[in-house]
């Protein structure tokens, strides 16, 4: 699968960003692979891959927490500016104005689990083959991350739901990490006339509101 190149951010005065971004993406993936760090592309690139193309944001790489510090050092050795931005969940590496987010804890909290890695897909993004998180895991990540200033995350998830072809059984399984959030998102999807099977709603509802024994 090849992702069509999206436009650069409208607030970026440098049109060469479209040249820099693929270059830094390729280098970031190469560094990660050379250090044998399993990863999944998340964020805006995953959104664009699975249903809602948008502007080029940061390069979001979901990794295991144990790999975070060694990988950050590898980026530093490769000439990136690095910082332990939020030691609990996020480090950043920056080169040529492009930021690579090394994410090792998502809102929830959610971590990169073995089944997430297994279900990731190899796709081509801007000329580089990468491992991108599954559409179901992307939906889960967006559902769990909603805050006042991140409402766009739910619209990202709705864009993926609108695309269809989802593994509902797997999404039901993963929804156990935050069933009320996922249930709310899927009810919104139904309200927007998107296809979400009623039995999926019922099963996640049961998980969110188990009957008292």
- Compute the number of strand runs: 8
Q: Mean pLDDT across all residues, rounded? A: 90
CATH architecture of the largest domain, please?
2-Layer Sandwich
Distance between the termini: 48 Å
Percent of residues in helices comes to: 40-55%
CATH fold descriptor of the largest domain: Beta Polymerase, domain 2
Number of helices: 9
The percentage of residues in β strands lies in 15-25%
CATH level-1 class of the largest domain: Alpha Beta
Q: Summarize the main sheet.
A: 5 strands, mixed
- Tally of distinct domains: 2
Elements, N to C (H/E): EHEHEHEEEHEEHHHHH
Walk across the major sheet and give the strand order.
2-3-6-5-4
Description:
Helix content is 45%, strand content 18%. The protein is an alpha/beta fold and 213 residues long. It folds into two domains: 133 residues, Beta Polymerase, domain 2 (2-Layer Sandwich); 80 residues. It has a five-stranded mixed beta sheet with strand order 2-3-6-5-4. A three-stranded mixed beta sheet has the order 1-7-8. A hairpin with a 2-residue loop joins strand 5 and strand 6. The longest helix is centred in the first third of the chain and has 18 residues. The radius of gyration is 18 Å and the shape is globular.
SSE blueprint:
Elements (H helix, E strand, L loop, with lengths): L1 E2 L13 H18 L4 E3 L1 H8 L8 E5 L4 H10 L3 E6 L3 E6 L2 E6 L10 H6 L1 E5 L2 E5 L2 H10 L7 H12 L4 H7 L4 H13 L6 H11 L5
Parallel strand pairs: 1-7, 3-6
Antiparallel strand pairs: 2-3, 4-5, 5-6, 7-8
């Amino acid at each position: 699968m090849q992702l069509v190149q999206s436009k650069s951010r409208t607030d970026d005065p440098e049109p060469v960003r479209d040249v820099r971004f693929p270059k830094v993406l390729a280098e970031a993936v190469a560094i990660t692979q050379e250090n044998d760090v399993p990863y999944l592309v998340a964020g805006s690139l995953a959104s664009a891959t699975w249903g809602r193309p948008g502007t080029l944001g940061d390069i979001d790489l979901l990794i295991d927490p144990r790999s975070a510090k060694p990988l950050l050092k590898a980026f530093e050795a490769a000439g990136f500016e690095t910082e332990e931005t939020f030691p609990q969940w996020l480090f950043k590496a920056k080169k040529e104005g492009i930021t690579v987010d090394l994410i090792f804890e998502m809102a929830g909290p959610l971590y990169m689990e073995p089944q997430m890695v297994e279900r990731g897909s190899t796709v081509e993004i801007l000329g580089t083959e990468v491992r991108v998180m599954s559409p179901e895991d992307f939906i889960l990540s967006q559902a769990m991350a909603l805050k006042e200033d991140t409402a766009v995350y739910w619209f990202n998830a709705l864009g993926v739901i609108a695309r269809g072809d989802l593994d509902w059984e797997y999404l039901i399984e993963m929804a156990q990490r935050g069933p009320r959030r996922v249930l709310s998102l899927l009810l919104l999807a139904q309200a927007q006339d998107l296809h979400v099977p009623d039995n999926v709603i019922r099963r996640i509802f049961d998980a969110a509101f188990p009957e008292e024994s």
